[in-house]
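Notebook p. 47: complex prediction with flavin mononucleotide.
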Amino acid sequence: MEFVGIVGSLRAGSLNRQVALAAAELCGPGTRFTLYEGLAGLPYFEHDVELAGPPAPVLELRARLAAADAVLIACPEYAAGMSGVLKNALEWVVGGGELVDKPVAVVTASPAVTGGERARAWTTETLRMMGADVLPESMSVPKAGTKLKDGRVADGALREQLRGVLAAMEAAALRRAAQRGE
Ligand SMILES: Cc1cc2nc3c(=O)[nH]c(=O)nc-3n(C[C@H](O)[C@H](O)[C@H](O)COP(=O)(O)O)c2cc1C
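Predicted complex, structure tokens below:
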């Protein structure tokens, strides 16, 4: 099974990146979890450019998502919403349709006690508009700085929650494959 992670933060020490990397480590042997690293290289979304032919970085993003059985988005909350770089990437995917019916888990990690739940709500709304199957196991991680140490999950409860998210991604991907007769 192929899982792709998208981290909506460009920061080297990103908490959300650490969450995504921790999720990748928790995957079982039958699953390959890779991070999409091209977010910073995407041009700003421009519909005229899309109609003329999407540029190579956009085609790469679309191909990565098309090949994924499920997607995990880990995104910070900036000014009560998802990060601009993530929204830009999602705008490029609307026209491609790669997330239609695709299982997507949304995780937001924040130092705040709210865990970035407003960004999760917004990301969920956008993804649903795009036709994605946003999983109910999606979650926010409050006080994330206290639960992640040196790029690893230092909190047993968070580790179990992430395992639950991954299990839901796998179950949804299997259901989708069965429905499509794959
Ligand atoms: C400009 C700016 C706006 C922010 N707005 C919010 C916010 O609305 N809600 C929140 O929980 N955290 C907010 N934060 C804090 C981020 O959640 C925090 O910096 C987080 O660590 C960023 O994610 P990352 O660690 O994955 O890069 C903001 C930070 C910055 C720099």
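Notes: The two ends are 13 Å apart (CA to CA). The pocket of flavin mononucleotide is lined by residues 9, 11, 14-16, 76-80, 110-112, 114, 116 (CB under 6 Å).
Next step: compare against the earlier run before touching the bench.
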